[in-house]
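Progress narrative, work stream C.
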Amino acid sequence: MDTPEVLVLVVDDDAATRRLLDVRLRAMGCEVAAAADGREALIAIQREVPALMLLDLQMPRMGGMELLRELRKGGVDLPVIVITAHGSIEAAVEAMKEGAIDFLPKPFDPKHLEIVVHKALERRKLVESNRFLQDTLAARTPAVLGESAPIRRAIEIARKAAAANSTVLLLGESGTGKEVFAHSIHQWSPRQDRPFVVVNCVALSEHLLESELFGHEKGAFTGAHATKKGKFELAHSGTVFLDEIGDMPPNLQTKLLRVLQDHAFERVGGTKPFRADIRIIAATNRDLDGAVKDGRFREDLYYRLNVVRIVLPPLRDRMDDLPALAHHFVARFAMETKKAVKGISKEAMTLLLAQAWRGNIRELANVIERAVVLCNGIQIEPEDLALLSPGGGASPFSLTSPMTSGQFHAQVKQFKQATIKAALHQTGGNQTKAAELLGLRRTHLVRMLRVLSIREQ
């Protein structure tokens, strides 16, 4: 079998089985690591995520099923082939429900082993190629929406920056659309037909992040059983988006600085220099100025990143854009869920406009997705929305809250109070503007303030 040099982790408490699989897999051209139980496997995976895992289910300390659940809980995307004893097919089926992709019965038939492993590795290669293609295609379909003054300024700077190779630093609260902006800058740039690679600097440990960025040579550290290309190599002539750059460990900040200064790097454990023909876009919701002053972020790296600085406004500062964003998400999620939802009612839009949106555009997208799923008509109504009141309490329309007998009128009153308070909060207590926002006459709003016992702000 023409198998590329990949790492396969064998997890089995039986030493003879581990030795047999080691011989068979190496004959196929694979590198092999071994673990005697689930705990040892977790430690090995933390050092290096293998291309494939062969997993026995019955083991001491931590069995195969528990390991599968731990991997799924930790978000580790790893193809797993379950090793099953004769007569335990039911257990294999249960393991596949937990994320395993295939099973291998004992005793092993060499040809069957080769077929199953080959199929799993081909599947992994296809998944990785598809994910890479999706990132690149997403970069070619930017969705920066909005006509408000703050977002227009940000777009204008981004378009100008896209024409050059200068590093761009995107700043803003979590959920303000920094990755979408990075996609758009790539699409507007001369590199648009080249790879767009995303790296989350906070999702991995320092050791794994270093390997993810720079790659590593075979034998560079314990568990480095095969050479691995890093994101900088894979993104050659394209764009690398470093999300959450403010959380990058100091040691890696130094290495990244060299990439920005000299456009060169080495793989972990290697001495051969590689050229980095890449454009870097970085993003963070951290206060980098404060981090530099406190010594938590390198000042020289900060200046290298902060060539073109774009601050993305929070949603509360661009509420004029909310209707367009909301309708965009309705169309998107209606297509994904195959629902016939076409729009948002005036009452529902009023409620959306009255929210504080601390989670910004990401929170809005989540609310709209939920509303599309729950909607039974052709447009979203207030009862389809599960929102938080300005004070952080549950909305009366939170469909996850338990209902009690005879609470209809109380729920309606709470809804009115929450909506009016939100409008007053958003308008700084200006009753005339709040009335306009709610679509009410000011005299009617004043009367409702009195009837609902809402203290004037």
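Work stream C, second folded protein:
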Amino acid sequence: MTVGVTLRLGTAADAELLYRMGHRTFLHTFGPPNDPADVQAYMATTYSVPVQCAELADPSVTFLIAAEHETPVGYAKLVQGRSGDGVIGTNPLEVQRFYADVPFIGAGVGSVMMPEVIAHADRGGHDTLWLAVWEHNPKAQRFYERHGFRVVGRQDFQLGRDLQQDLVMERR
């Protein structure tokens, strides 16, 4: 499956794509274990087309979109200028979203995307990559550990009315 996956930079024309894929993937991953009202409240403020347009226009944000034969299969959202609890890098790059689209979860898309994310960070002169992952998502934690990330801290994540905890993971 992953042989034909390529990555490209996101553009303003991708706002609708990012909205749909982000909404679908977040709901699939976090909907079942959480209160539907909390999930809907979060998604309404995070995955709208106007929010995606603003993020695509922000010079501190980069989207890498994975596609297989022109079909989008995942994306990564990378943010400069932010740091998480325990992150020690002096020029960190946050992996704020790292999603394989629902039909492609488990098909190796993430294993193709992550080396490209790491290469993008290296080309940009970033000395560390970091991300926050839900403490109740061990599958994602194991994936990130396989790619050199280690837990360095914790941070709050507000999902609607529910205050949750994320693990902060860093790859130097």
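The radius of gyration is 15 Å. No further action is required on this item.
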